[in-house]
Amino acid sequence: MKASIWRALMAIGMKFHHFAEPKPPRPNFKIIVPSRLSPRGGTFKLVFYIPDSYLSAPDGYRFPVVVNFHGGGFTLGTGTDDARWASTVIHQVEAVFVSVEYRLAPEYPFSVGVEDGTDALMYLASHAEELRLDPHRMALSGFSAGGNFAFTVPLMLLDLQTDAGKRSLHEPSLQQSSSRLNSRPSTSHLNTSHSHLRTHAGPSTSAFSSTLSLPRPDLENAMSSSSVLKLSDLEPTALEIAQQVPDLSLKAIVSFYPPTDFRSSRKDKRATNPAPEKNLPPMLTNLFDESYMHPSDLIDLCDPYLSPAAASDAQLKAAYPDDIILYTCEYDMLNVEGKEFGERLQGDNVGKTVHGGEVKAVPHAFDKKPNPVRFPKSADRIYSEACAELRRVFGGRSSVEERTQLELSKAVERFDDEELRRDGDTDALIGEGGTTRSERELERETRWREAPDITIDEPPSDANGVK
Q1: Can you tell me the distance from the alpha carbon of 192 to that of 177, in angstroms, rounded to the nearest whole number?
Q2: pTM of this prediction?
Q3: How confident is the model at residue 427 (pLDDT cuts 50, 70, 90)?
Q4: CA nearest to 14, candidates 61, 64, 71, 93
């Protein structure tokens, strides 16, 4: 009952959050995915946001994809909560954005969410050809609890790839299949002629194989409907037929203010916040912990699927991509453990390149304020900054200015300060007239301030660009 009440309140808050201009996009379509990792079986949804070029790109082009996990303490939230982040990704990275609507606690406690996230990643890689995705240009992102999944899903994937025996793929039961097929969402709003939907002849090779396929022009026609398209599985692949883990490559992890270590108590975490009044209230964090880590006497707080900081250096090195984009919030009980995790990842034993850093003077989830009037400029900039890193790791170009633009709104103690200094030295004189990067930043900030009808967050007095 408590979870239901909080979910309703969060839904109201997200409506306010999405009301501010510019309004975020609606999803383009959804796909229902079967669980193959959770012993409980069942299904969950993938929510798709696609770039404008998705329907017009050449047939052979495959888009990078960002697989996202929403926040909400493993207990609240939906796959559309991060629509503003999705909008930034599809417009600035030109990647497909897929939000995983993983199943929530307390109905689905640990480790169902991690299993759903891993299932989602494998499903997208297996069906990359049909969905026009590049399985070797994939990234994970997440906020708060979802940021935890961005770090735990690769660990579960690694165990599957190395046949560690902690989890195994299984064919969904026929009973689940029958139930799912009988309750398949209606597509009556679609024109079901051959020009819109094409059925595949021949017997199904999997209980979850699809009878529907949507070529590109048909998908465009379907998405012109006011209803969101919902599909069941696409053509069966080795994942469905042989329970085979697909070949894929993670290029980056983007994690915003995640919990990384449940081995320490909430009391100890709260004591680390220099502004304790900005902590989430105990009644909320207690709900999260009691819902997700249930039954508590059977939960191992040292399980890396729960506490990624409990994983060995060897596991982290093998499971994670070279580039990690991690943001923590100074006024957040999760800040200290997040910073420690980032510093460990970039240490010699793990050897990752960690971008982002501690955002000064902001609380947990500062980018999700239920403000119907305006979206904070600092939140807009942190999203754009992260997208500049994604664009770079996916093979595009991004400048140091783009990768440090948050500092025009907030001071940031960065993990990669030395790297940015080196890149900044190279980038310093590329502007017109031989201007330095700091001079160009000052000019750009002046233009923003003088622009009519635009408001921005005040830049911090101690942060005037990259140090």
Answers
A1: 23
A2: 0.83
A3: low
A4: 71
